[in-house]
Amino acid sequence: MDGKLLIGTIQAGIYFILGLIAFGLELWALVDCLRYKPAHFEAAFKRTKTFWLAMTGISAAVGAFSVFLGGGGLGLFGIAAVTAASVYLADVRPALREIGNSGRSQGPYGSGPYNW
């Protein structure tokens, strides 16, 4: 096997693995965005649920296109898609989780004075 062919094959494999990881990240952001109610987004002072569904949905579509149709790995659109999903997961998701957990009980028997 020629050296250039071997390096090209390894490089294509690495790009494919990176594309799969990026697609997993984008899909995780989309599925997580679907879990929350629109009121949670407004209460957390993040944009609307429709906005984040569009951002994470488009990023997941770009990731799927890159991985399954050979769209060139992580090109400019792939990097933008990973960035959008990462912003959701790093900034919006923690705020939504905080809002979503505020109404839950603090212990196994509720949040009363005798909750040990």
Structure description:
This protein is an all-alpha fold and 116 residues long. The protein has a domain at 38-100. The chain contains four helices and no strands. The longest helix has 33 residues, at 3-35. Pfam families: DUF2516. InterPro entries: DUF2516.
Short description:
The chain is an all-alpha fold and 116 residues long.
Distance between the termini: 68 Å
Gyration radius from CA atoms, angstroms = 20 Å
Count the E strands. 0
Helix/strand order: HHHH
State the oligomer.
Answer: single chain
How many distinct helices? 4
Topology:
Elements: H1 3-35, H2 38-43, H3 49-68, H4 76-101
List keywords for this structure.
single chain; 116 residues; mainly alpha; DUF2516 family protein; DUF2516
